[in-house]
Amino acid sequence: MIRIFINGLAASAGGGLTYLRNVIPQLAAREDVRANVLMSGDLCHEFEQTANVRFFEAKCPKGALGRLWGEQRELPAMIMRCGAQVLVSAGNFALWNSPVPQILLSRNSLYTSADFMRDVEERGDYAIWIDTLLKGWLARQSIRVANATVAPSGAFAGELSEWSGKKTIAIHHGFDEEAFTADKTPLPADVQAKLDEGRDAVRLLFVSHYNYYRNFETLLRAMPILSRRLKGRRIRLYLTCRLSSGANPGSYRTDAAYGLLKTVREHSEIIELGSVPYRSLHHLYRACHIYVAPAYTESFAHPLVEAMSSGLPIVASDLAVHREICGNAGIYFAKFSPQDLAESVAHVCRSSELSRGLAENGRRRVLDFSWKKHVALLLTLAETLAGAGSVQ
């Protein structure tokens, strides 16, 4: 029996929420673990207490730095009261004075990305530039004080090891197709109507809020080129966000992307669906033909696995992480080349044989990702730490 304490306060959106929503049911299904989970009140109410998983609600201070300061003061005593043997810090930053061995889950590739820092500097967004530098320093120190650091892919683990000077362990994030497709509630009516309007089009999909590193601009610039490559065929790109100011979480400025969108819309169909409920995403994937992933940095990318499970061929930027996750289920383009992106999509559109082959490869590839396996490997590491005291 292993007793763990999970600090999930950093899970507020995106991959952090996906992680806890999938890992907690796996922990609850095991008899060889006792887990105490600390999370924000909004997320805490999604789960029910079970015999082996207890939840603690906390008010999360605004901002990562405020949260980190609160954690350093409050968590050690909480961990001791729970009798935990191992701490799992799930938000890129470690507890400096942990009373028990600590596993740090690191999944933010912005801290190691020279492309991101260059992009932010070119945009003149110096607030994000400074914020990333400061958080990057804290993340690097966190890796050094943690007993073990876990990354969600081998490629990102390699980046972290080189960046921090300390070995990082790769444990793939998982996927549960049954849980992902369990909700049969149809898509919102307005979303379904926009899909119906493109019934005769080749439908491309990109699932993401707007942020710089997802490289929306390269994708937008590719659309008029793609329309020329496939002259005579109707092409529609669906985005699960809106590019207007204030319509996305975080502080990323959308002005440049919105201006570009208005320009390329003269020759391309680009549909802003807005945020689509996670429980309904499987309907959206299955209503489209090709999934496009233009990010210039990544640590795992859950939408790629979701898209593969839905039978979509993948066109992705040529990142080591993308190749690791998708393998032969995708074709890859130079990450900052709209021309290469457009030609890659056109290549899939022109060949039904290629499209079918990529989709079939994806359905096989997705079987390699399992939340059950992820949790089992994480608990094995926790048991090693509890018994030996540290992993270098």
- The strand line-up of the biggest sheet is 3-2-1-4-5-6-7
Low-confidence stretches: none
Largest sheet properties: 7 strands, parallel
CATH architecture of the largest domain: 3-Layer(aba) Sandwich
Average pLDDT works out at: 92
- Range of helix content: 40-55%
CATH topology of the largest domain: Rossmann fold
Contiguous helical run count:
16
Principal-axes geometry comes out as globular
User: What is the CA–CA distance across the termini?
Assistant: 23 Å
CATH secondary-structure class of the largest domain: Alpha Beta
Assess the beta-strand content as a share of residues.
15-25%
Could you walk me through the main structural features you see in this protein, from its secondary elements to its overall organization?
- This protein has 392 residues and is an alpha/beta fold.
- Helix content is 46%, strand content 15%.
- The chain has 16 helices and 13 strands.
- The strands form 2 sheets. A 7-stranded parallel β-sheet has the order 3-2-1-4-5-6-7. The protein has a 6-stranded parallel β-sheet with strand order 10-9-8-11-12-13, sandwiched between helices.
